[in-house]
């Protein structure tokens, strides 16, 4: 049940409805888990229905908490621009403006086709 939940939370569009649908199907699977364990012969001393509910609910929260936190803080898996306003976006990973100035020809490596003078 974890893999569909991760995939639904990482969808580029409609991620919230998809996550709710996957949680609904996870709840249905949880409801079916206990009768299956009873039919398998785990009657005495085995887990009860609340164990299945709490295990699956905790797993869903553990999966969704970091994914939704990343989603709501602006992280995406697509290559779209992060800023759509009129001013250009500031890239925190770009090199400083002074590093983009052209360097002097003496500091450039020699060309393999250069001839000695």
Describe the structure.
- The chain has a domain at 2-72.
- Helices cover 49% and strands 0% of the residues.
- The protein has three helices and no strands.
- Helix 1 (2-9) packs antiparallel against helix 2 (15-39), helix 1 packs parallel to helix 3 (49-72) and helix 2 (15-39) packs antiparallel against helix 3.
Average pLDDT over all residues: 75
Q: How big a fraction of the residues is strand?
A: under 5%
Oligomer: single chain
User: Quick one: biggest sheet?
Assistant: none
Spell out the helices and strands N to C.
HHH
Strand elements, count? 0
Helix-and-strand structural type: mainly alpha
| Helical percentage | 40-55%
**Cα Rg:** 27 Å
N- to C-terminal distance: 71 Å
The number of distinct helices, counting runs of at least 4 residues, comes to 3
Inertia-based shape? elongated
Uncertain spans, ≥5 residues at pLDDT below 50? none
């Amino acid at each position: 049940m974890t893999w569909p939940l991760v995939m639904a939370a990482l969808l580029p569009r409609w991620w919230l409805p998809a996550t709710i649908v996957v949680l609904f199907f996870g709840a249905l699977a949880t409801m079916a888990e206990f009768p299956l364990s009873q039919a398998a012969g785990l009657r005495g001393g085995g887990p009860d229905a609340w164990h299945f509910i709490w295990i699956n609910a905790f797993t869903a929260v553990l999966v969704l908490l970091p994914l939704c936190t990343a989603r709501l803080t602006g992280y995406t898996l697509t290559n779209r621009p992060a800023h759509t306003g009129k001013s250009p976006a500031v890239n925190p990973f770009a090199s400083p403006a002074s590093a983009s100035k052209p360097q002097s020809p003496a500091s450039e490596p020699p060309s393999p086709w250069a001839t000695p003078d």
